[in-house]
Amino acid sequence: MRQIRTQVGIVGAGPAGLMLGHLLHLHGIDSFIIEDRSEDHVVERVRAGVLEQATVDLMREAGIGDRLARQGLRHDGIFLAFRGDRHRIPMADLTGGRSITIYGQNEVLRDLIGARVASGRPLLFEVADVSIHELDTPRPRIRFRKDEALHEVTCDFVAGCDGSQGICRLAIPATHLRVFEHVYPFGWLGILADAAPTSDELVYSLHDRGFALFSMRSPTVTRLYLQCAPDEDLGLWPDERVWSELIVRLATSDGWAPDVGSVSQKGVTRMRSLVVEPMRYGRLFLAGDAAHVVPPTGAKGLNLAVADVWRLAGGLEAFYASGNESKLREYSERGLQRTWRAQRFSWWMTSTLHRTPDPSGFEYRRQLAELDYLVGSRAAMTSLAENYVGVPLA
Ligand code: RFL
Ligand code: PHB
Q1: Is the CB of 258 under 6 A from ligand 1?
Q2: In the predicted model, what is the mean pLDDT of residues 260-285?
Q3: Does 215 sit in the ligand 1 pocket, CB within 6 Å?
Q4: Average pLDDT, the chain
Q5: Domain 184-271+357-389, what architecture?
Q6: For position 359, what pLDDT does the model report?
Q7: Does the annotation mark 204 as catalytic?
Q8: pLDDT exceeding 90 applies to what percent of the chain?
Q9: Which ligand ends up closest to the CA of 52?
Q10: 56 Cβ closer than 6 Å to some ligand 1 atom
Q11: Tens-place pLDDT, residues 40-79
Q12: pLDDT digit string (tens) for 2-23?
């Protein structure tokens, strides 16, 4: 077995793992990153698009914000559509100038992989049989196979950044962790289309046929979602049906509708909320989707992952600089506070904007009343805006 020594072993090269590796590198801390999928798969996977102000600021401060500054689309507001009308929430005006930026997760990953390669520090794709050991000792280990050879990485710490289906969370004894889960009775059918966005800002729509979302990736690419069944059969959704449903659910009485274009990607995402407490076991720290999953309606998942690794990098920096473990001790508690805040908001956005089985129609009337109140009340809009743009890192 080939032996490797590092300070922080990182399992998973999604946004959490790669951002952690980068922040540690800036602090002069060594890390070893392993990923079980191919680089193409990781970069091409279509996922998040909305970066909170704090994520944008961190990328700039960490020296990986150049492309983001050039290509990111800054949005100062979002639209909520219901009963055929669009209502703008002026987020920046309501939050003292905070905004969101549209920049695909794919681009974030390209920037992070570029920075990793430039640092010369290790990043291995397509590893297999990953396992983690001796987590409750000062020398935890990661074992994996790469090109038929077995490797063992001896670390000071292991960062479990391996997403919602990873192995790190499962390595924590059941007696040491509580899992809180809520499954929503629907999913999202998402498409990416070669069509110029017809709105400069996102449109979240509650229609009596279900939720729909208009988003974008660039001045020539639109990203759209439709509420569907969690196990929706994509075979039943030829492009023409997707477009006609999108137009029915999104078009508003002012004449606005998305433009149709050729569909370059189509997929279904299930929706759930999950939180693991605590986010630490011995020398293992969980970060990002490995520790918590939010439904995508609030656009929080990637941003929470970034907030986790910012805190973890700060804790590790203090540990290596002076042996002070207080930030590492606070890692889980602070992270759970931010996570539950995001869970509450994502649950609220989801339950306000999706149709659920509701024979008497009570629920739909309640949702419309909620939205009427929201767009008529500066206080209610401010509450939405400050959660949507996100709170500063802390
Ligand atoms: P990831 O991105 O899942 O990365 C984990 C990585 O670990 C690898 N892995 C392993 N590697 C080695 N060994 C193993 N045993 C491994 N098991 C797994 C995986 O291959 C993967 O590469 O988790 P991370 O880094 O925590 O990042 C989380 C984000 O990816 C996620 O929260 C967001 O994509 C969620 N999300 C959104 N978040 C936002 O902040 N804003 C958005 O607008 C937004 N939109 C979305 C979303 C997620 C979506 N889907 C498809 C779930 C829209 C959608 C449709
Ligand atoms: C996206 O552009 O993919 C997107 C935007 C807003 C969300 C979720 C996803 O709430």
Answers
A1: no
A2: 97
A3: no
A4: 97
A5: 2-Layer Sandwich (3.30)
A6: 85
A7: yes
A8: 99
A9: 1
A10: no
A11: 999 999 999 999 999 999 999 999 999 999 999 999 999 9
A12: 999 999 999 999 999 999 999 9
CB neighbourhood size of 137 (10 A): 10
Q: Kindly list the domain boundaries of the chain, sorted by start residue.
A: 2-74+100-181+272-349, 184-271+357-389
Q: Is the CB of 296 under 6 A from ligand 2?
A: yes
The answer, yes or no, to whether residue 269 has pLDDT greater than 90, is yes
Ligand 2 closest atom vs CA 190? 3
CATH topology of domain 2-74+100-181+272-349: FAD/NAD(P)-binding domain (3.50.50)
Which residues are bridge partners to 318 per DSSP?
none
207 catalytic? Reply is no
- The reported pTM is 0.97
